[in-house]
Amino acid sequence: MDSSEAHLDRIEAQRSTDVSHDQEKKKYFPMNLINKVASKLCSRGGHGATPPTGDNESGLEFLNNLKLSDLFDLPSENVQMNTEVFSGLSDGDKECLDKLKSHGTTMACLKSDRGDSVLHLAARWGHLELVKNIISECPCLVLELNSKNQIPLHVAAHAGHSAIVEALVASVTFFSDRLAEEDRERLNPYVLRDKYGNTALHLAIEGRYMEMAASLVNVNQNASFLENNEGISSLYMAVEAGDVTLVKEILKTAGNNDLEGRNSNLDSKLEGRKHLVHVALNARSTGVLDVILNEYPSLEDERDDEGRTCLSFAAFIGFYKGVCNLLDRSTKNVYVCDEDGSFPIHTAAENGHIRIVKEILKRCPHSKHMLNKLGQNVLHIAAKIGEHNLVKSLMRSDDTKHLGVGQDVDARGIAESVLKPNYIFHERLTLAFLLDAHAFRGCGSVKSLTKPSEPLDHEKSRDYVNTLLLVAALVATMTFAAGFTIPGGFNSSAPHLGRATLTTDPNLFFFLLFDILAMQTSVASICTLIWAQLGDPSLVSSSLNVALPLLLFSLLCMPLAFLCGVVTAVGHVKWFVVIISLISAFFFYWATSILAPHVMLQLSNVSPASCVYLDLCMCYQELVSGSRSGRLIPKLRHLMRPKKD
């Protein structure tokens, strides 16, 4: 044992001298304990062969001839591994080991230029039979460290070779079963951490080898709670990965049937970051969330490093299912504010998670009146960020009576104060709905739903006007040409030579009507937009107020003219007429909902009564986005209710 003791001293000397003894015990395998255990074996005559007990299972025959003393028979020196041996190991060639024996070279001495032993390399490259042969010849390599302070178990776990991990676990178990309880706890390779602080379990979870990780959890309970250099434990990583099965396996090892005892036991065992519920929410795994909170309900009240409760964090990231899960358990945290003074409903509103806001309001209606540290409720936050859908939902609630915060500041005032001088659609739409609600509640007269925007600079306005001119010119060209390609053609004989053959068909009349309207309004748009090209900023604004509605009208008339023309040609096929009519109706509604709000919110004077039409235009966008799915009938009921005087 003298040579092995010298080798262990050399390993100890290679360790960084700037690490304290306590830190060293955490991050590195306590190799100096091998000397103590080896000395005990010597005094007890432990060099003799240890007969295997129950190790004759299939695949474990390589353990049969092992001696416990061989585990501590470390080499006295290192020998640089040549390319022939390195190549043979990479190919899984067992003959290279036989050649080493014939030359009298001890394979335990061989090291690569990165400090890997032959067992490290065989484990990394996944050669199971080679690993078994090496363990049979040199069991001491099972505890050998490389330059990263990793034993072969680390290397195999990192590479994802589960069969090799099983072989290494079997060999460790073989030796552990023959040690005293005290020595078994000290010589525990499962809690050994490499220079990055990672155990083999860390590396298995990092590589998403979850079955392997579960097997490592089962062979050792303590490794799951140890932190690495970044303060992350294996349990934390399992929760972050969203693996329900692995989290269950780890939490089983915490033990204690008493609830309070379980909480204290987990808290004492778990190192590093402990915000497990927040991590499960961030992983968007309701399965892991249920596992954690079913075992440790009190964790629902924990806060993260930024002082956010679990419910606030779920609202912040927009995890709707997680919010519902937490609210199903308890609604008390709805009324618990974060360290920044915001409640969960405010957090959800500030980040635009409308569905979560509505869910909280559904469970806790009074939460809409709660104020944050700035004295703002959820309506004011929605007005501030321009969230028009949330504003509409809140303003329709009958118990939202007070919009004010302070003396003269209210939701309308907030929306007007953040309104940018240039055109920002969602800000102007939010203000429009607030002004409509303001007038509906009789809080004061409202002349217009919009505020005039400042003209764009000359370069930007010129590009915008040129685009509108191009569109108007294309509409005028196409409708002009369509007027001379009438459906049904023209008579080629007297007495109505050159006249339309389907003059008496009403569909042809509507075709010509819409075509003429589209052509004339597009020409009118062109004439109006020419004024905007003169360079006068005031002319740009006034020209757009006239040209945009005209162009919108022409764009809507053009598909109607097309529909009438098609019906004129195929009107005798009734089922086809029905199909194209339905398609055209859907298209017309879609085009209106896209174009009308853009035009209306740019006009300088929009009557509050037009907010009904504006709201109808937005129905399509909300239904398509899924935010208002299934809510069209309540919306229509609201729009049809009579306005107050």
UniProtKB/TrEMBL annotation:
Native organism taxonomy: Eukaryota, Viridiplantae, Streptophyta, Embryophyta, Tracheophyta
Keywords: ANK repeat, Membrane, Repeat, Transmembrane, Transmembrane helix
Keyword Signal among record annotations: no
Residue ranges of every copy of the PGG domain listed in the record: 460-567
Keyword Transmembrane: yes
Localization: Membrane
Database matches in Pfam families: Ank, Ank_2, PGG
GO cellular component: membrane
Annotated protein name in UniProt: PGG domain-containing protein
Native species: Arabidopsis thaliana (Mouse-ear cress)
Region entry Disordered, spans: 1-24
ANK repeat boundaries on the chain: 114-136, 340-363
Topology versus the membrane: Multi-pass membrane protein
TM stretches of this protein: 468-488, 508-532, 544-569, 575-596
